[in-house]
Amino acid sequence: MEVSQLHTQLSAALGDKVLGREELTDREATVLAPSAWAEGVKLLVGLGFDVMIELGGADYSNYPEPKAAPLCVSAHFYSTASNARAWIKAYLPLEGAEIESLVPQFAAANWYERECYDMFGVQFKNHPYLKRLLLYDEFVGHPLRKDYPIMKSQPLIPMRSAVDYEAVAMKRRAEEGKA
Amino acid sequence: MPMELKQKYPDRVKEADDFDIEPMYINMGPSHPAMHGTVKLVLKLDGETVVGTEMQVGYLHRCFEKTVENKTWNQAIPYTDRLNYVSPLINNVGYALAVEKLMGIETPERCAYIRVIMSELSRIGDHLTCVGAGAMELGAITAFLYFVKAREYTWQLIEEVTGARLTISYTRVGGVIRDLPASFEERFDWIEKQVLENIDEVSRMLEKNRIFVDRMKEVGKMPLERIKSYGITGPFGRAAGLNYDVRKAAPYLVYDRLNFEVPTRTAGDNFARYEVRMEEVRQSLKIIRQCLKQMPQGPIRSKDPRVSLPRKKEVYSNIEGLMNHFKLIMPGHGIRPPKGEVYGAVEGGNGELGFWIISDGTDRPWRVRVRPPCFPITSAVEELVLGEQLADIVPIFGSVNMIGGEMDR
Questions:
Q1: Looking at this predicted complex, what is its ipTM?
Q2: CATH architecture of B64-408
Q3: Which of B2, B58, B367 sits opposite A58 (nearest CB)?
């Protein structure tokens, strides 16, 4: 697979913050250093990638092909002007996975990042409201990580009334306020 | 947009002193007649105006992505039925196409045409349900009944082909499970006439109805900039002028050989979405008509031994056939795509339906990530309803067409 123009442009602009390029079965992805995540996306916006199609995570622990770090955050963008797509990836450690939020650039990032946090435990810095999206607040662990057993059961929680729900939400906000 | 939850009594006392009206909090859902599927919208109201919202999803979370990692590649197909349960065929096709891309398998031409026909039949059902249910919530129950009748015809046709109405599991990696029945074209002729008559009648009924038009036009507007920022595709995006359709932008199957239009509008309100969906039903009928004309005879499954079972005659008479059968059936063998990663997208009922699939070379997927088309649209609801009237949430949410199965997975 030939090195795309996009990858060359990103490498030229970000220097050694571009860690490499992955040749995938049907496309290529540029691997960015987690510290250059938001910067790389800003560059993509400048290059005309105006629609954020998706952001998702994957856990590569024990994957046959070793990666830089096990947790992967992958985002992909579409350019309405040139009908092109751009894939970027960043690899994060399992413990203390943290990356810059893309909410300032794309409104779509809000829920995708919440889902990624929910399923993989990736912390998105400066996210306005990083809260579990599909699971409930008392859920323990991050289910799409490979070390989460499929048959694991969760502790039962008492049934909530509407008022209780509000109390949970307020408690969470209070904790967030402290942090 | 996170909303400020009610601080209890101290504020209330203070506000009362200032003769200030305190906002009212309402839980809309998770089980509400106007909330399709199970979703909860916490609303902060000032009089009738929405001043803050929080959308809470996840009530239909079924651990799709985790479950599929622990099933074989073909066992994932029944799970994909339950993603968008209004148009399950499109999900089946999308998943099968992504896995075939991973393995580098070309399906026979007839199979590609059948997949297009079945996807478009599903799309018709999807749009009819969305518009019909949306109209019903505004009081036009007649429109809903008419559309359900029209949808019933398409579902009957789907049942004749697949043997099921909803949980169809029609595709396999490398093909489809059975051919179209001999009577298909004849039945489709009749159904096309019925559906066209039906939508003409209903559009006359709705578009000249003052109540319907007043509640749809200029309500739930979202400008193109925000649509792009939210990553919204499909009829919702096209109604605001985002001319993007996977079938045109990155044609899959045989869409590049078919002549159809992608309707777009620029208003970006509920009415534009309604118009786009109605027009797409007509285009889908046109696509099926062309497919039936172009479709060749031939096999419906790839002959690739990595994915297709050999004929029974081969299995019982020679060792290669027996080995091939064994390799596909026994646990731990099965379909084994090479190590790799693909992203396959199809145009679902609500927009781009993507499957990001990672394989580690074993008989189970390493990761299957679904990019559900209604996910970004649902995330935009918080912004869409802000500043609108409480009653306007009903038509707005109707035009969003959130499908719980796909949203929560």
A1: 0.84
A2: Orthogonal Bundle (1.10)
A3: B367
